Amino acid sequence: MSQWYPKKGRVIFHVDMNSFYASVEMAYNPELKGKPLAIAGNPEERKGIVVTSSYEARAKGVKTTMQLWQARRLCPELIVLRPNFDRYRAASKEMFQMLAEITPYVEPVSIDEGYMDVTGTEQHGSPIEIAQNLQQRISRELDLPCSIGIAPNKFLAKMASDMKKPMGITILRKRDIKEKLWPLPIEEMYGVGNKTAEKLRGIDINTVGDLANSDAYQLKQIFGINGERLQTRANGIDMRPVDPDAVHEFKSIGSSQTLAEDTTDEAEIRKLMHELAENVERRMKRKQAAGQSVQIMIRYHDRKTITRSKKLNHFIENKADIFYFANELFQNHWNFEPIRLLGITVQDVDEKKNIAKQLDLFTYEEEAGKEKLYKAMDELSQKYGKNLFKQLRNDDREEQPRTSFQKDFLDDFKR
Fold it and tell me: Which residues have a catalytic role annotated?
């Protein structure tokens, strides 16, 4: 067993649920198994977006973020369902509980993937035996497929879990990287997005091996510290620990949505911004958090995307404040071209219990009063419906005290 559990090294798993949303729906309704299935935010809209799809649908060319009309053209028999987040949260919770029964060192990355440090768990068998037993248990008890990467660090474990799907188990040692990792196209390296890949190809870095053996100075000049980090990872080096507390860290909370059609209709845009601000407020309340910056993202009809942000003097948490500053940014930076997607994010976020905000008596009393007002509005809105109130703003708002995308990626899946 000592060959599997080196004294100085680590044994890390990356557990990645395969086509998670679609697989959960198939487990819930076995009649869907073996059929092309897509989960989409708004199946009724022609321009709804595919969130995820089954492997049967992927075989027909259906991809994540593809518009539904395109997916249906490729696969006319496609079955489309709305996401059921309560169902996905429940499955995720059970899956992570199984991981935690093997080791306390479990780091969730999203609702459907996480890292495990199984170093020192000899009582459960060799790493390959642990992986096989875990994979079989998830399949047997939850009826869900997963792939598991086994490696000496997080980066290699992540790359390994992607090498065989569905239901794969892949071991990637440092001595294997020249053979298994370096030949991969640069786009397939974890941490390399489309824009970074384009820049890398522009300097004749086409594979992971090219990156590993490229000029470090040139990389740092072009990409800064990230260039150095990517090259280190390409050489199989990653010292990050598996951190069970990382899931509680968050710096931003956001919400974005693609419009049914590209639009310049200000009423429709304003309505969506209200919905996004409400989503952000709900998520911040769930986390008992507040933030000190607001960012908007605008994606135009030609896919050109801009982000603009503003640092505030005070922390905010309420929909009205979030909307006010987001709208201000929008009005200052929209070029009046048709918009495809909008996003609002509150940044510099922290839990309210950690925010040491110094308030004089007047400010404290005013903010406390606003808290009571918001609570009453929430109760009445729940009873009589949304949009019951339209809050008026003073023109001298900038002089008024204000109240009110961790990790936000788990936020929709936690209560």
Answer: 113
